Amino acid sequence: MSTLKNKVQLIGNVGQEPTITNLENGKKVVRLSLATNENYKNAKGEKQTDTNWHTVVAWGKTADIIEKFVSKGKEIAIEGKLTSRSYEDKEGVKRYVTEVVVSEILLLGNTQ
Predict the structure, then answer these.
(1) Per CATH, which fold does 2-107 belong to?
(2) Which of 20, 89, 93, 97 has its CA 20 to 30 A from that of 2?
(3) pLDDT of 112 strictly over 90
């Protein structure tokens, strides 16, 4: 169980085109939003869908794979870890962000 301290696995659909940034040090980072859906029935027996949006970050070879093969709407499975950070926006307000840093990706669904 010691290897399960900070592990996230998600299957969902990419919400927008991935944003690719080439850094000055030669590294590449990709950011994307991933939508996961949970289906359930409410008290009246009606089908409901709850969608959660996740901010996903990938580096290196994983970023290369996403850049080449992942686009808006694509279904993917990812594995990674949760990270939290804070920053100050342009107005000087401190913002907090939680992201999933990808260690592995699996392309699902249609391969077009």
Answers:
(1) OB fold (Dihydrolipoamide Acetyltransferase, E2P) (2.40.50)
(2) 97
(3) no
